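Table S5 (text form). Sequence records supplied for joint modeling of the two-component complex.
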Amino acid sequence: MVKKEKLLEMLYSMVKIRRVEERLLDIFAQGKIPGFIHVSIGQEAVAAGVCSCLKTDDSIFTTHRGHGQAIAKGVDLKRFMAEVYGRKDGYCKGKSGSMHIASKEVGIIGSNGIVGGGIPISLGTAFASIYRGEDKVTVCFFGDGATNEGTFHESLNLASLWNLPVVFCCENNGWSQFTPQKVYMKLENISKRAESYGMAGVTVDGDDVLKVYEEAEKAIVRARKGQGPTLLECKTHRWFGHFAGDAQKYRSPKEIQEARGFDPIGKFQKFLFESKYISPEYIDKIEAKIKSEIEEAIAFAESSPIGGIEELFNDVYA
Amino acid sequence: MKETRYVRAITEALSEEMARDENVFVIGEDVGGPGGAFSATKGLLETFGERRVRDTPISESAIVGLAIGAAAQGLRPVAEIMFMDFLTVCMDQIVNQMAKMRYMFGGIYKLPVVIRAPCGGGLNAGPQHSQCLESWFAHVPGLKVVMPATPYDVKGLLKASIRDDNPILFIENKALYALKGEIPEEEYLVPIGKADVKRAGKDATVVATSRMVHQSLEAAKVLSNEGIDVEVIDLRTINPLDKETIFKSVEKTSKLVIAHEAVKAFGIGAEIAAMVCEEMIDCLDAPVLRVGAPFVPVPFNVEKLYLPNSEDVVKAVKKVME
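The corresponding C-alpha cell record, covering 640 residues in total, follows.
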C-alpha cells in the first residue's frame, strides 16, 4: 500500500500542475508570455504518478507539453515561472521558455520542441549511469504522436538490446496535435510495440494516479536493478487544444466534454475522501497554499529582468 | 618522427585519449569487432573492452542521441558515422539537439561530443556515399567543424577535438585514409581553429580543404615550374574559420583561389570569398575564384570527370594571375 505521505504528495503535485497551467493560460491570454505554451490539464496523473517514484538525481526528459513533469519533478516554482516569462532568473536565464525547460539540479535534462527528439538523448543519460556503475534511472516522456517517429524505434531497440535503465513513458492523450489516434495508427495500445523490441510493455489508465504510480514504480525498480527498460503507456485525456489559443475546430464539443469527464484530480480526491485520508478542509488548505505559491512566483517572474545583448551571444560555445 | 597512415593516426589518437581519460568512449556501427568500416577503430575493443567500445545497430539517430545524453552527464563520446552522407539520417539530433542544447538551456551544459565521419569521392561509391557536406554544418551555430588533410593534422586535431568541450563534427576523407605522412613519436595536439600554411608563396593564395590541399600542393609544384609562387593554406578547421591566416596571406599575394571538393555553389568557398570582399577588397588584384565540384550529385560511373583536381587549381591560379 502506498504511504499516506506519498498520496498527499501526489495530490499536491497534481493540483499544483493544474492551477499553474490555468494561471498560465490566463497570463498568456494577457500577452505577458512570449512564444507559445502547451498545457497538460487533464493529464496531471501521469506526471505526478511517475515522478513520485523518482529521486532528485534520476533524470527525466520531457516535451513541449512538459510543465506538469517539471513541476512534479520538483522545480522551484519561482525560477520555473521566470523561465516561462523568458526572464534572467529562470532556470535557463530565460532562453528556454515554456517549451525547453531544463535543470540539472532537479534532473530535468531537457524539454524538447521536436516530437520524438528527446528519446535518443535519454539513452545517453541511462548509458552514463551504467557506464559509471550508478543506479540512476532515466524516464523519457513523450506523446502518442512521437511513437510514429523513427527515433522511437531506434531508441527502444537499442535500450532493450543494452538493458539500459530507462523507462519510456508514453503519455497517450489520443491526439497527435490535431489528429486522433485512430487516423494515424492501427494499434489501440501503443505498449504493444514494446514486444517487438523484446521489452516489457504495459498500458495503464493514465487518469488514475494510483495505477500510474504502481506501474511506474515497477518499471523504475526494474530499470534500477539492471533488468532493462519498459514502455509504459498512460492513457489520458487532453482537455484543451494542442497549444494555448487553439480553437480546436477539429474536435467536436461532445468529444471535448467527454474528455473533461475524465478528471484525474477529481477521481483521486474522491478516493482520498472515501478512504478518509483527507477532508474537504484539507483541499481548501492546499488550494490556498498553491495559490499563494503561484502568485509569489508570478511576482518574482515579472520583476526579473529580461536579458540584454550579452544574452544574445552567450552560451553558443563552451 | 615516424611514418603513419592517415587512418592509423586516427586510431592512435583514439587510443591515446581513451587511455588518458576514462570518460572517453567510442560508439558506432561496426566499431568494435570489425574495427570500423575503414578500420579506424581497429584494436580498440581488444584494448579497452566492450564497455568503452560500443557496437550499435544501424541507428544513426540513436547513436548521436546517446552521445549527446552521455555528454550532458560528463562523458566524452566519440561517435563514428560510417559515411558523411549518413549524417543526414540523424540531422535532427545534430542540428536541433546537439547544436542547440547549450544555448537553449542557458549554458547549463557542456557537450563534448565528437562525431567522426568520412567525406569525399575517389572510391566510385556513388551519390549516397561520396558527398562533402561540411558547409551544411558550418552554417549551424553551436557546432565546430574540423576537416584535416594529413596524418599529422588528423591525429593532433582529433585529440584536441576530444578534449574540447563543444560538439564537433570531425570530417575525415576516405580517399586520404591510406595516405602516409610523418608524425612525431611523442604526444602532440593541433589547435582547433588554426589554419596551416602548407606551402609558403608570394604570388597567389590557394585556400584548400581536405583532399584538395594535396591537389593544390601538386598544382603549386606545376605552377612553380612556370615561375608562379603559390601559397597553399590548409584550413584544417572550417568553423571557427581562421580569418587571420587567410587575410595575412591575401594581403601578401593580392590573389585568392579557394579549392574544395564539395559542390562549388553555396559552399565554404563562397563564404571565404564574401568575407575577403567585404573586409579587404582593396587588397585584391583579381576577382576571387573558386574551384569546386559541379552542381550535380556525385556520379558513380564518371566520378573522375566530377572530382575537382590539381589541373583545375592550376587553371584558376593562372586566371587570377592574368
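Note: Chain B touches chain A at residues 25, 51, 56-57, 59-62, 64-75, 77, 92-93, 96-97, 101-111, 141-142, 144, 165-166 (CB under 8 Å).
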